[in-house]
Amino acid sequence: MENGFQREREELKKMAGTVQSCPYRTEFHIMPPVGWINDPNGLCQFKGRFHAYFQYSPLSVHGGGGYWGHCTSEDLLHWEYHSPVLTTDIPEDASGVYSGSALIEDDRMYLFYTGNVKNPGEYDYIDAGRMSTQILVESEDGQHMSEKSVLLRMEDYPQHMTQHVRDPKVWKENGKYYMVLGARARAWDESGNRRDKGGILIYESDDRKEWTLHRELIPAKAFGYMWECPDIFDLGGKRVLSFCPQGLPSEPERYQNIYQSGYAFLSDSEDVEKTFREWDMGFDFYAPQTFVSEDGRRILIGWAGMPDTEKTHRNLSVENGWQHCLTLPTELTFRDGRIFRSPVRELLEQQWRERMISDDGRLTFRRAVLVSAEGMGGEPCSIRIGTAENGLTIRADKEKIEITFVNPDGSISQCGGGRRSRTGRVEKGVERLLAVIDSSIAELFVNDGEAVFTTRIYLDRAERRLDVSECRGCRIYEADTLHSEQAEL
Ligand code: FRU
């Protein structure tokens, strides 16, 4: 693998200079060393160290796949980048080493992923032309991988599945292994029109090698036509299904992005629509995955990006040879019938220095900043990141929160790359806000993560200002030491 990547290294080095001097590079969010990143994969803590793999296309800023990139960290914030660990080198993964997960057992890492094949030709790539295979590799150090073993092929899926079956997440329970897969099932409405349904397949195994179908969950009433990146875990006594349904019709304050990403409580109802909530109300969030840290926390990292957004907005880093990043690792807790998602405590344990806001409510920042407000009592609040002409406004009033790149005069701020507005609500009114801003990404946690808004924001260094015109109990902190190494190629 390393040799394979070596051959491309010279090519990549040419791009690296431009990438590394890009003002939008983040300090502690996982980014592609060059090119494109999408889903987090194989998240785990292994022999004390955190490993994050990711869908990686170093040679194309517009994606297309090719690799599982790899980085590791002691604290989930300072990441060290390594050579990619997987690439397309067997017939079963010829068109992509797609997303998957890690299982740690007896000091060994088991990585499960989907090998994707798209045959060239006049196919619809739904019922024909595609092959989705589930594959296993093993590792003793997280960097060097065993041979690939094929676990499940097209003929192993139920007959009514289309060729979209992918993204294995594997866990062990009562001595057995389980693998959940996202799927698109063939279905028709009453008038006989094709209306596919998203769902999941769960396979079981005694030895991680032989897998048989345990059950499938395809809702009686369609909830999207395809579910990607499923994840099943227990939290607060509930069995949670996290997944990414595609094809939910957009509503003014829900399902505002092209594809959705959220969770449902399977233990309350198998009709997932009943309990479904979105993980994030911002513009840039998809394909999250969770894992349990060695100290027992359920941690989630998402892709701070979305597929197929070329028509709605663009990322200004593209011209500098890279695109997208992952979200901050967030910790999940169950409270008041829902899941709260807040930054891992390692973030707050960094050295943060309080910065005083001038009398006019303004401040210029150079490093990562936290904007934190407490005791807001649902009163109106307005925070602007950027300048008067080019920025993002965060507005909260009672239980409603809005983030908007639309300026008061109706023009659209350039730093959003075409993004406009997103709204969301919390149950009883906004009490607390925490905005984490790291160069070109802002993540807003409302009421300790009752609602989260993730968005990219492309401000030049000179435009990095805050204007806190109205916000009770607001304090601002700047990071002194947070900074990951630039990726070595
Ligand atoms: C989600 C996804 C997955 C797939 C991967 C390919 O963003 O489409 O379903 O495995 O990306 O990069």
Please describe the biggest sheet, giving its number of strands, its sense, and whether it closes into a barrel: 6 strands, antiparallel
Count of alpha and pi helical runs: 2
Bound molecules: beta-D-fructofuranose
What does the radius of gyration come to?
Answer: 22 Å
General shape: globular
Record the strand order, biggest sheet: 23-34-25-30-31-32
Care to count the β-strands? 34
**Terminal residue distance:** 14 Å
Low-confidence segments, given as residue ranges, are: none
Structural class: mainly beta
Mean pLDDT, all residues? 95
Helix share bin: under 10%
Assess the beta-strand content as a share of residues. over 45%
Explain how this protein is built:
The structure is a single chain. The protein is globular, with a radius of gyration of 22 Å. It contains 2 helices and 34 strands. The strands form 7 sheets. The chain has a 6-stranded antiparallel β-sheet, with no helix packed on it. Strands 24-33-26-27-28-29 form a 6-stranded antiparallel β-sheet, with no helix packed on it. It has a 5-stranded mixed β-sheet with strand order 4-3-2-1-19, covered by helices on one side. The longest helix has 19 residues, at 2-20. The two termini are 14 Å apart. 5% of the residues lie in helices and 47% in strands. It has helices spanning 2-20, 345-348, and strands at 35-46, 49-57, 67-73, 79-87, 96-105, 108-118, 130-139, 149-152, 161-173, 176-185, 197-205, 212-217, 226-235, 238-246, 262-265, 277-278, 286-292, 298-304, 322-323, 325-326, 330-335, 338-343, 352-355, 362-364, 369-373, 381-386, 391-397, 400-404, 421-425, 433-438, 441-446, 451-456, 465-470, 474-479. It is mainly beta. The mean pLDDT is 95. Bound molecules: beta-D-fructofuranose. Beta-D-fructofuranose binds next to strand 1, strand 5, strand 9, strand 13 and strand 17.
